[in-house]
Amino acid sequence: MNSEKIEIFDTTLRDGEQVPGCKLNTEQKLIIAERLDKLGIDIIEAGFPISSPGDFESVSEISKLVKNAKVCGLTRANKKDIDVAAEALKFAKRPRIHTGIGTSESHIRYKFNSTKEDILERAAEAVRYAKTYVEDVEFYAEDAGRTDNEYLAQVCEAVIKAGATVLNIPDTTGYCLPEEYGQKIKYLRENVKGIEKAVLSCHCHNDLGLATANSIAGVMNGARQIECTINGLGERAGNTALEEVVMILKQHKDLNLHTDVNSRMLNEMSLMVSDLMGMSVQPNKAIVGANAFAHSSGIHQDGVIKNRETYEIIDPEEVGVSTSSIILTARSGRSALAYRFKHIGYDVTKNELDYLYQEFLKVADLKKEIGNDDLSRIIETFNRKIG
Ligand code: KIV
Ligand code: ZN
């Protein structure tokens, strides 16, 4: 069976940039957008043009710069927002307007003080209006994760009739369980008239640590676009991490789904975004964390030294990391120590290793990690001792 493509919609520059302290200027956004385009992203959400003159400028400049990806601007469901987004996107080769409105009970009641009928009408009206500017209009049903499926289906049907090409089903508050989110996508696929005219998109937040799992559940149930950010950046606990979904689809050939992202650029992309946004990546972050390919316990190290596949499911080169690393700590064993000695030019015999290992443990118990300088000192002391 032929593998089906999942479109990757990157929102690092919009949802990702909403993180407090992560504000980027236009120049920094252009650097990231250019790399995202090279990475093979299908859609770059460049910003929310009406939100500030700076964001308008960024979307406009990114539209001029990006060669391959579609460039998208966010709006609320009103004419002014859409007019401004259309103006910011006017230089884009492939522009997309992303408009929408909250559809859950709590958004309708508390945010809009409105009714389901009125929201449905406003949703369709916004899409119809956006269509007067661009062919490609994505609609988001904000808080779809907590919206009842029957009403969500009615909204989806109305916006498809109005011309929406993509239906974004955001789990805005990160509330859904994977099974539930997957079933929501399946329900829409089976119950929305005209659904074959639109692409269903997953946009998941990570409040319960389920954003990636929910996005995968979504595509397993028929969604064909995932919205995500580099390093999983985003409001509160963040969005679905781009590097995670890309590598899940790459590793799980059994899903018969793929993306066009060049995974070998993931590590440098992560470093660049972390650097420009001033947001460090947690060391144990999947795929791009500093420890993602580091081994420190004796049993694991022994396995990896014999054959990498014993404890690694991804070849680090596949994500742009040159090699796995063997970290020396008090939990490390003899084979890791011999491996690291060899690495710095010392081929030790078995008897020497037995002695050096005891010396190593004395130092390792006092430190978090043993570096090459510590190893050199251990060897030099040993050499002096044996004359
Ligand atoms: O999380 C969300 O609902 C959003 C929409 C504005 C698309 O980011
Ligand atoms: Zn979001």
Description:
The chain is an alpha/beta fold and 387 residues long. Helices cover 44% and strands 14% of the residues. The protein is built from 14 helices and 12 strands. Helix 8 (211-220) links the parallel strand 8 and strand 9 (225-228). The chain is elongated, with a radius of gyration of 25 Å. 45% of the residues are buried. Zinc ion binds at residues 15, 170, 172, 203, 205, 239. Zinc ion binds next to loops.
The span between the termini is 68 Å
For the biggest sheet, the summary is: 8 strands, parallel, barrel
Approximate helicity band:
40-55%
Please report the number of helical segments.
Answer: 14
Ligand inventory: 3-methyl-2-oxobutanoic acid, zinc ion
- What integer value in Å does the Rg equal? 25 Å
Low-confidence sequence ranges: none
Query: Using DSSP, what is the number of strands?
Result: 12
Shape: elongated
Order of helices and strands: EEHEHEHEHHEHEHEHEHEHEHEHHH
Describe the strand arrangement of the main beta sheet, using strand numbers: 2-3-4-5-6-7-8-9
Output the structural class: alpha/beta
**How much of the polypeptide forms β-strand, as a percent range?**
5-15%
InterPro entries: 2-IPM_HCS-like, AIPM/Hcit_synth_CS, Aldolase_TIM, LeuA/HCS_post-cat, PYR_CT
Keywords: Acyltransferase, Amino-acid biosynthesis, Branched-chain amino acid biosynthesis, Leucine biosynthesis, Manganese, Transferase
EC number: 2.3.3.13
GO molecular function, one term: 2-isopropylmalate synthase activity
